[in-house]
Write a structure and sequence with these properties.
37% of the residues lie in helices and 24% in strands. It has helices spanning 40-47, 70-75, 93-103, 111-124, 141-154, 171-186, 198-204, 222-226, 229-236, and strands at residues 2-11, 14-24, 29-33, 55-60, 63-64, 78-80, 159-163, 190-194, 207-212, 215-220. The two termini are 27 Å apart. The structure holds adenosine-5'-diphosphate and magnesium ion.
Length: 242
Amino acid sequence: MLSIQEVSKHFGGITAIKDVSFSIEQGKIVGLVGPNGAGKSTLLNVISGVYLPSSGSIIFDGLDITDLSPDKVCKHGIAKTFQLVQSFPELTAIQNVLVGAVFGNSDKIGMLEAREKAEKNLEFIGYPMNKMNYPVKNLTVVELKRIQLARALATEPKLLLLDEVTTGLNPKESNDAISLIQKIRESGITILIVEHVMKVIMNVSDNIVVLHHGEKIAEGTPYEIANDEKVITSYLGKKIDA
Ligand SMILES: Nc1ncnc2c1ncn2[C@@H]1O[C@H](COP(=O)(O)OP(=O)(O)O)[C@@H](O)[C@H]1O
Ligand SMILES: [Mg+2]
């Protein structure tokens, strides 16, 4: 479904990603891990059109999306959440999700239908519906993360890019997030997830790609990654159970 081909991204003298290639099959959950500064967020931003890559190409559903702007990438069926939550603070919870429903994947949608879609997605992610009309500036970070996820889902993506959705969650919230990610996949959406909580990644991923200093150093099943010498020395620090 998605093919990332020798993608590099430089910021001035900094090489954030270097010659990274991998692909994602439809229906899978692929985990993207690596130390802080490894280039994970940059790669998601390059795929979603926030940044143009310095070189390389990105093919989605047979279409070259390398040079497309974020709104065009979204129209083709890729949605993303941001590591640092982005929202429209003055709008209400439901209005924030409506933005996704109206400007997303579907062609010309009526306001009634958009509202139904927004409500459906808020319910799906488990948002307390009695707070539907709260301005989001009054919400907690956890609630904001949910709103952001509902907004991404309301665009009706085929591929969802998640950047550290469970960071800052307590163990119970983190488990809920794992169930939610699995529920999203069961609804037919392919997922590329960046996460540094290894328990989450090991639990949900079919395949894992490891970045280190902007380069892919390993790729494989959770079991293979947990036993990969290079990954253990440069990232995990010690062997973990998988
Ligand atoms: N907009 C930017 N301008 C300059 N440097 C950036 C920018 N975004 C990321 N970087 C740099 O690129 C590298 C990778 O960052 P990032 O992709 O955020 O890593 P990760 O998400 O894996 O922690 C870091 O050295 C970071 O400082
Ligand atoms: Mg990041």
